Amino acid sequence: MTCFLPRSVLPAVFALALACGAQAQPGNPLSVHVLDMQTGEPTAGIAVTLEQRSGDAWRELASASTDAQGRIAALFPAGLPFSKGDYRIVFRTGEHYRRGGQASFFPRIPVEFTVTATERHYHIPLLLSPFGYSTYRGN
Predict the structure, then answer these.
(1) Euclidean distance between the first and final Cα of the chain, in Å?
(2) What average pLDDT does the segment 124-138 reach?
(3) pLDDT, tens digit, for every residue of 26-55?
(4) Residue 61 contacts by C-beta under 8 Å, 6 or more apart in sequence?
(5) Locate the Transthyretin/hydroxyisourate hydrolase domain: which residues (predicted)?
(6) 19 and 11 in contact (C-beta within 8 Å)?
(7) Is the pTM of this model over 0.85?
(8) How far is CA 94 from CA 47, 90, 107, 121, in A?
(9) Can you list the domains of the chain with their CATH numbers?
(10) Sequence-distant contacts of 91-95: CB under 8 A, at least 24 apart
């Protein structure tokens, strides 16, 4: 069976095909999400740093800020091998609260975790309030 599409829809069909193809390719192994427990809203503009343990020290691998949805979808740097070991994500929450003129207790929230399976995706959500936080292994 032959199917003909109007010329006007071809750009949209092409864009959809590219998007579907991009989703099928292996993605970044690490993402984060910050939600404000006080408002129930995503928290944009949180500076985040990814570090890897190297002996007794930490080596910075990447840094980014959360988007309007409170997410960083691809925190692990492209081109580096994702290896087993200890990692730390540091959420710079104090800067966020200072910008909003609000007091907070935690200027930085370091979240350490161990990668044991490099073929898996690691998602680190942070539920945040000015005087407390919670985190867990998401998916």
Answers:
(1) 41
(2) 96
(3) 589 999 999 999 889 999 999 999 999 999
(4) 50, 51, 52, 76, 77, 80
(5) 25-139
(6) no
(7) no
(8) 10, 11, 4, 28
(9) 28-135 (2.60.40.180)
(10) 91/32, 91/34, 91/46, 91/47, 91/48, 91/126, 91/128, 92/46, 92/47, 92/48, 92/49, 93/46, 93/128, 93/133, 95/46, 95/47
